[in-house]
Amino acid sequence: MGKQLVNHLFTFSVKNAILALTVTAMFLAFPRQPAAWAVTVTDVFDRKIEVPDKVERVIALGGSMMFLTYLGAAGMAVGVEEIEKTVIAKPYIMVNAEKIKDKPIIGSGGSRRLYNVEEIILLKPDVVFILAMNRGEVDDIQRQLNKNVIGLSMQGDAGEYDEATFLRSVLTVGQALGMQGRAQKLADYVASLKNELAYDPGPGQRAKAYVGGLSSRGNRDMTSTTSRSMPMALAKIDNMMAGEAPGGAFISKEHLLAMNPPLLFIDANGLELIREAISKDPSFYRRLTALVDGNAFLTLPHTSYLFNVETQYANAFYMAKVAYPTGYPDLDPAAKADEIYTAFDGQRLFGRMKAEFGGFARLRLRGSELAVED
Fold first, then answer.
1. Cβ atoms within 10 A of the Cβ of 251, count?
2. Which helix (H) or strand (E) is 73 found in, with range?
3. Which tens digit of pLDDT belongs to each residue from 54-108?
4. pTM, 2 dp
């Protein structure tokens, strides 16, 4: 009886072993299906990237932390760029100070764009984003990390802010993080801002203006400008530099004087350098009518480590109010700026931006001093 039981158990085990081998062979005979947890995202450079359907650990390079901030996801970042622990006139950096102060440094940030590849790999991110100049930059960092990287942008062909590209990046980040609803809400809000700036006196009647002091790899004086000012375009103000350059540009003082713009907008980042220039040659600047007559206005910093997108929209409302006060009788630019900062960054920032960096004030040249008149 015992011998029969042993034979039975042996036969049963052999049959089970054969069944197990058969099942294994069946799985090996068929090609593996894509993992159910993978989500395919197409980035702004038309690169298809697979990411997990649940993302918890993120690395944001090249200033792309701004997109995490806009979606309320800055807490997902497991490392930050060194520049993001400094105080510069960039809203997303201001609101993230406490969240990121103890997080490891994964690169320099800024114009140098040096990344600590070893540190990034050790942090084991689920997703890596980079706000890139071109596709080649994305491919290069992907090769270094040996990990899929999602490329983002907010620039058009001329290197200036491009709304369609920016919104595509917002929606791409939303898809990668499973935050499509929040991303679409922000995109819809941006569209509503354009609709609010509807006043247009028509061709030949629009205000003409020049914007100076725009940062470009550092703060600059009055001769730093752009031919494609998004805020002026939204406000229906004719840019006197339009057609003279493909985008950002530096002009001579003599060129500025020859234009003698009736309306001047001066970026707060350039204010101190402009004051220095005036102190050295006040007689030259007194020939600029707008400065003497008080038709010069201080705007919030347009660029600090790439574009300050939300600030540019806030500036558009201020410029519209300055140029067309009767067209916007009920507009409060400061309140509107706070609404915009809240929609993008989750905080009312206008008071802090104005106090720390300046903005939304009339400027008037008095002798050799450029005075601020609130």
1. 18
2. none
3. 999 999 999 999 999 999 999 999 999 999 999 789 999 999 999 899 999 999 9
4. 0.88
CB 327 within 8 A of CB 320: yes
Q: Describe the chain by its helix, strand, coil percentages, rounded to 5.
A: 45, 20, 35
Comparison of pLDDT for 112 and 223, the residue scoring more:
223
pLDDT band at 3; cut points 50, 70, 90: very low
Per mean pLDDT, which of 16-20, 336-340, 354-358 is the most reliable? 336-340
Of 28, 24, 9, 107, the C-alpha closest to 65 is 107
Helix, strand or coil, per DSSP, at residue 221: coil
Parallel, antiparallel or unpaired: strands 296-299 and 361-366:
antiparallel
pLDDT tens for each residue of 26-64: 333 333 344 445 889 999 999 999 999 899 999 999 999
The pLDDT, as a whole number, for residue 21 is 38
Domain with CATH 3.40.50.1980 in the chain: 38-193, 201-373
State the Cα angle at 341 between 335 and 344, rounded to 5°: 145
Q: Which of 89, 92, 327 is nearest to 213 (CA)?
A: 89
Domain 38-193 bears CATH identifier 3.90.550.10: no
The structure tokens 């089970």 sit at 16
Q: Which CATH class is domain 201-373?
A: alpha beta
DSSP string, 30-54: SPPPPPTTEEEEE-TTS-EEEEESS
Tokens linked to 97: 């100070």
d(CA 343, CA 347): 8
Report d(CA 28, CA 33) in Å as an integer: 12
CA distance 313 to 235: 10
CA gap 210, 321 in Å, rounded: 16
Give the 3-state secondary structure of residue 153: coil
Distances 27 to 18, 37, 172 between C-alpha atoms, Å: 15, 19, 35
Place of tokens 């601020």: 372
